[in-house]
Design a protein that fits this description.
heterodimer; A: Rossmann fold; six-stranded parallel beta sheet; 15 helices; 12 strands; B: about 220 residues; alpha+beta; 2 domains; 10 helices; 2 strands; about 50% helix; about 15% strand
């Protein structure tokens, strides 16, 4: 059983990222201004901690954010907590429960959670000036906090607007000990004695998942997966996770398909901290049956270019989440100028405006007919689809990673100004 | 070429949004919360939201008006709230008073709307801005244009929109510098007329550069 934190290597497809790389996306002025904003924090150290180095949005964000913070003069380190399958089964159950799923948590689950957090505590030092803990899995590491700086921030990437009270009350022994909480949507706020700040995650425009691609590569990717480029393609890119509802996507596609010829692509992989993926994938395959127009693609973590190509080849991108922290795939799609059809949950409506850059299925909880209807609205005629594309292009102008760094620097500066606790 | 009495310093600005926990489910809630929220909240939902609407110019840039329209389906109220022009306010207290008066008047006219539940709540947030000097300074109009051409839209918002609530009140930083340091009052007045509602911030930048170009020889 592994029991200590590990340090992943943050990279950008083999090359360490530098802010100057972003001149072509945001212009030199943004880069200069970020350097100016970072000046007061130069030389300070930051430690980021999460629960997986590969798979899911958090790992993707840290993979690029860590080298960029180093590039502006901070000493930034990224650590991943480790644990056995039993730990990740518990944290996955916690994750679902915090999203509102029913959960009769046995007392052993809480003991196991605490035990693994203790083990990780013993094998790591927390003497950086700032410690940023991502999500609930490592939240108990706050016990390492001393009475003087460092400053601690909890970044909660999930929707805790309606959490299972048993799990949330358990976490409340830790959360108020942080200096601040960062969340992705105002409706995720909880009654807490510490400040809560809005912090949108972002995509990296230069990563393999979002960079521009040659048309030939896109064509070959479709060929590789036997997808017809001449017919409408609906794509959902997500981990095979019940909260992403891949079976619901298939059912909605089957409803929509009665009225509009189209194909469906479900592309995703697993994450090291998600033990449910295999089961959900099997359920999706069973729901798809032998429909040759449903393409379920289980892709390895190094498939960023293929995912990029699939998104760029798509007519619309789907995100039928039942609960969602933010929905980075929506942002990725808009960056690629693709209209999106998605459930109106979590942070998705922050970027997706119904009738402007896609359609929202407003059901609460989201429904299959609601998504099917939204798909048909997006595909109803070429002029309407083109209008949604223009909306996506407008939105894409506001999407880039620099705002993320600006706000994070502001959070750290604000934390640095706090008195010792 | 005219040299300024004092250089213009361009600032980089970053804004953090703090979620206050105050929320409104009805127009009555909204009214109560506008009465009681902090100045930083009023600023965020009026001045700061103008920057957030820079990329997608759909809807109203004033968050209160947008919520009245989209979540409460009250277009007449939305229009009245949106018509409060932030350029006319030197103090947030005055803007808050007019927001409250607008809501009170509307709810007297349309009492059925007061307790009707909105489609989604309104969350009150505060904007907290930090500004630091950039390497860009201007001692002449030409240097100013070069700097303005170069800086980000966050900087344009900081100097052209948010500046109206800093001393000297109701005027943007650019117009104030043109008048006070370069002696170009007419140029300052023309720039102050650029419409921040119908232009994106990128459009504001282009208009300022166009207005300034004929004065470069002055």
């Amino acid at each position: 059983m592994a029991s200590s934190l590990t340090t992943p290597t943050a990279s950008s497809g083999g090359k360490i990222a530098s802010l100057e790389d972003y001149f072509s996306v945001v212009g030199p002025s943004e880069v200069e201004e970020i350097h100016a904003l970072a000046n007061r924090l130069a030389g300070r150290s930051v430690k980021m901690v999460n629960s997986t180095a590969v798979g899911g949005g958090v790992a993707e964000i840290l993979n690029r954010l860590v080298p960029l913070l180093s590039d502006v003069g901070l000493s930034c380190e990224w650590s991943v907590i480790t644990g056995g399958n039993d730990f990740f089964e518990v944290t996955k159950a916690f994750h679902n429960a915090l999203h509102g799923a029913p959960y009769d948590a046995p007392s052993q689950a809480f003991e196991l959670f605490l035990s693994y957090n203790e083990q990780n505590l013993r094998h790591q030092s927390f003497d950086a000036d700032f410690v940023v803990i991502h999500d609930p899995q490592p939240v108990g590491l706050i016990k390492a906090r001393k009475s003087s700086p460092p400053h601690w921030v909890w970044r909660c990437h999930i929707d805790v607007s309606n959490p299972n009270s048993l799990v949330w009350n358990f976490l409340m022994q830790f959360v108020p000990r942080y200096d601040a909480v960062l969340i992705s949507s105002p409706n995720f706020t909880r009654p807490l004695p510490i400040p809560q700040y809005l912090f949108f995650p972002c995509i990296d425009p230069l990563s393999q998942k979002n960079q521009e691609l040659e048309a030939d590569f896109i064509r070959k990717t479709l060929e590789q997966f036997s997808i017809d480029p001449k017919r409408p393609i609906l794509t959902q890119v997500s981990r095979f996770d019940r909260l992403k509802d891949p079976v619901g996507v298939i059912q909605a596609y089957k409803l929509a398909r009665k009225y509009k010829d189209c194909q469906l692509v479900l592309a995703g992989g697993g994450a090291a901290d998600d033990p449910e993926g295999g089961q959900v994938l099997s359920e999706a395959r069973a729901a798809a049956g032998d429909d040759p127009d449903i393409h379920i693609l289980e892709l390895p973590p190094w498939s960023a270019l293929e995912i990029n190509a699939l998104q760029r080849a798509s007519t619309i991108i789907i995100q039928k989440s039942l609960r969602e922290g933010f929905g980075l795939t929506v942002t990725e799609a808009l960056w690629k100028k693709k209209p999106v059809v998605a459930s109106a949950v979590g942070g998705i409506p922050e970027w997706l405006t119904d009738g402007v850059n896609g359609h929202l299925a407003p059901g609460d909880p989201p429904t299959v007919p609601g998504l099917a209807e939204a798909i048909l609205r997006a595909l109803r005629d070429p002029a309407h689809h083109q209008m949604l594309r223009r909306g996506a292009i407008e939105t894409a102008r506001g999407i880039d990673g620099e705002q993320h760094i600006r706000v994070l620097l502001d959070v750290l500066r604000r934390a640095a100004d706090l008195p010792a606790r | 070429m005219r040299v300024a009495r004092a250089p213009f310093q361009f600032f980089a600005a970053a804004t953090l949004i703090r979620i206050t926990g105050q929320r409104a489910h009805t127009l009555t809630d909204l009214l109560e919360n506008i009465r009681n929220c902090t100045d930083a909240s009023v600023f965020n939902h009026t001045f700061q939201s103008l920057q957030q609407h820079h990329f997608l110019t759909e809807g109203f840039s004033n968050d209160f008006a947008q919520w009245a329209l989209a979540a409460c389906n009250e277009p007449r109220l939305a229009e009245r709230l949106a018509s409060l022009d932030i350029r006319h306010y030197a103090y947030l207290a005055a803007l808050r008073t007019d927001l409250v008066n607008t809501l009170e008047t509307y709810l007297l006219d349309v009492p059925d709307a007061a307790q009707r539940k909105a489609f989604e709540p309104f969350y009150f947030c505060e904007a907290v801005t930090v500004a630091v000097p950039t390497p860009w300074q201007a001692k002449t109009l030409a240097e100013f244009c070069e700097g303005l051409h170069h800086v980000s839209i966050h900087t344009v918002h900081y100097h052209f929109v948010a500046a109206r609530l800093r001393e000297p009140l109701t005027v943007n930083d650019f117009s104030f510098w043109f008048e006070e340091s370069l002696g170009l009052k007419d140029l300052g007045d023309r720039i102050d007329l650029i419409d921040i509602y119908t232009n994106t911030l990128e459009g504001v930048r282009q208009h300022i550069l166009e207005e300034a170009t004929p004065w470069l020889a002055a």
